[in-house]
Amino acid sequence: MKEIVEFRWHGRGGQGAWTASELLARTALHEGKYIQSFPEFGPERMGAPVTAFTRISTKPIRIHCAVYEPDVVVVLDPTLLKTVPVASGLRDDCVIVVNSADEVAKVRENLKTKKGHLWTIPATEIALKILGMPITNTALLGTVARATGIVALESVEKIVKERFRLDIAEKNFAVIKEAYQEAKKE
Amino acid sequence: MASLVKHEKNAMSGDEAVAYAAKQSDVDVVAAYPITPQTIIVEKFSEYVANGEVETEFVCVESEHSAMAACLSASVTGARAFTATASAGLALMHEMLFVTSGCRAPVVMAVVNRALSAPLNIHCDHSDSMAQRDSGWIQLYAENAQEAYDSIIQAFRIAEDLDVLLPVMVGLDGFTLSHTLENVETLPDDAVKKFVGTRRLPNVLTHEGKTVPFKLDPDNPMTMGPIALQNYYFEFKRQQEEAMKNALTVIQQVNDEFAELSGRKYGNGLVDAYCLDDAEIAAVCLGSTAGTMKTIVDELRQEGVKAGLLRLRTFRPLSVEEIRSALESVKAIAVMDKSMSFGGYGGAVFHEVRHALYEANAQPFVVNYIYGLGGRDTSPRELRGIYEDLQRILQTKRVENPIQYLGLRE
């Protein structure tokens, strides 16, 4: 693992981008890592594009600013690909995780960059099926765990069960597990 | 260190860390009014009260002016008082800040640094606490959530020291620290309680010639903060200045003692010098920016550039001697300000640091960067540019523009 891995989450207000960022951070902390999790501190409204950040490191994290050149970009809402510069600051070796039911090639085209290793997951469909609501954050968390290998699925389970009421935690972990298994790599 | 106590590893925001530190510090009275981005502190603390986890009297006041009045009143009865505020809340306290320091009431306050209106802005800069720098309060600025936790605990010891008896504000950067989840290692309750101890009071002579503890007490009535005109006012102010000087020593002692307990140390308590021993260029800053700057110093050092950083952990009292000796070898210095001093020559930190260097043996170049107002994020690339400017100044031996605005559209 790189000493410090930086994540940038793109979602819409209400989809739980910051919660996903926080759950990932708490999971990494549980595994003994150093973490940071914070939203982009702008106005947050239901449905408006929002950004959140996670840093995970093997050493104490000193840096305190937004993530400009992420190692991992996560897109919680497919409509953001056309409206938000999600590919900003990407490097060749980064990981991009996108919620989309489209073919991977189509998602790549919409990304408008050739950089990075692309993973896709039909997160909205999974969330609707299991949660009955289009809240995609936990599905993306499962996909991120798979695509990056940065945290173990068992650790995610533990943290999700700590964070949510039991019935909600179980449904969300079902989402996470399905997303972990169904994630598609380009 | 064998004597270190066991830590609990948590993920906490800066605000949560502050509330937790206050909870463990055996506070008698909290009087506070919520304001973004300080609100979490007040919310958390009122939860502790509601859950019976603390015995603190929580006073819901109608404004920050009243919050400080209530903390002052509690403090002069010998109680330990704590509050937290930000921005306009601190500005509204302005009058009471002077009364509190003038009464020598060791109130501790977290200031979650936020810009002042207008235009309305809820994000971080240091305009709020810089506007209070002459209010007679000690000012510490935290680099991260861990230090915010540690500094609140230390602040009670500093404030209540009988050689000091001054209120202390601990600044933490709004959102950047207050709302960011980070690793925070907390100490056990009993270790904090023991470290902070019970509040001691100096003895004073009453008008009847009795020696009593200095506090409002119906059995030994006394007046506090009474009128003092041309006859005594000046002497009171001179004593406050003496207390500030004493604080320079006490802050270092408390920092050392805390390190023995926790293993964590913030420079010498006054300044945190990073790679300065042989530095030729250096920046000076406060708060969370220092962490980012340290990563840039590491990068530059790997490239063979003799760069360093001085973080002023304590801004009041200003540690002139330490600043001068830490920057002794440095030939070009960039002082960073997260607030404006309108019509002044650069920002407040620049004034102070440049002033401290006036009597330095070798006169370095000293320039000012005003940055991050209203929470504007400053990227590592922009911050690195400061060091590149300093290198250019050293090469050309010329300063083109001593006061610059970093990350500003002009």
Task: Tell me what you see in this structure.
The complex is a heterodimer of chains A (186) and B (410). In chain A, strands 2-3-1-4-5-6-7 form a 7-stranded mixed sheet, with helices on both faces. The model of chain A has no long low-confidence stretch (mean pLDDT 95). In chain A, helix 2 links the parallel strand 5 (95-99) and strand 6 (117-121). The longest helix of chain A is centred in the C-terminal third of the chain and has 17 residues, at 166-182. Helices cover 38% and strands 22% of the residues of chain A. Chain A has helices at residues 17-30, 104-111, 123-130, 137-148, 153-163, 166-182, and strands spanning 4-12, 34-39, 49-57, 72-75, 95-99, 117-121, 184-185. Chain A has one domain (4-185): Pyruvate-ferredoxin oxidoreductase, PFOR, domain III (Pyruvate-ferredoxin Oxidoreductase, domain 3), CATH 3.40.920.10. Chain B is an alpha/beta fold. Chain B has 2 domains: 8-195 and 242-262, Thiamin diphosphate (ThDP)-binding fold, Pyr/PP domains (Rossmann fold, 3-Layer(aba) Sandwich); 271-405, Rossmann fold. Chain B has helices spanning 14-24, 39-50, 64-75, 87-102, 127-130, 145-160, 189-196, 233-262, 289-302, 320-326, 348-356, 380-396, and strands at 8-12, 29-32, 57-60, 81-85, 108-113, 138-141, 168-173, 181-186, 203-205, 211-213, 271-274, 281-285, 307-312, 314-316, 332-337, 365-371, 403-406. In chain B, the strands form 4 sheets. Chain B has a 7-stranded mixed sheet, with helices on both faces. In chain B, strands 11-13-12-15-16-17 form a 6-stranded mixed sheet, with helices on both faces. In chain B, helix 12 (380-396) links the parallel strand 16 and strand 17 (403-406). In chain B, helix 1 (14-24) runs parallel beside helix 6 (145-160) and helix 6 (145-160) packs across helix 8. Chain B starts with 7 loop residues before the first strand and ends with a strand. The interface between A and B is medium-sized, with 19 and 26 residues.
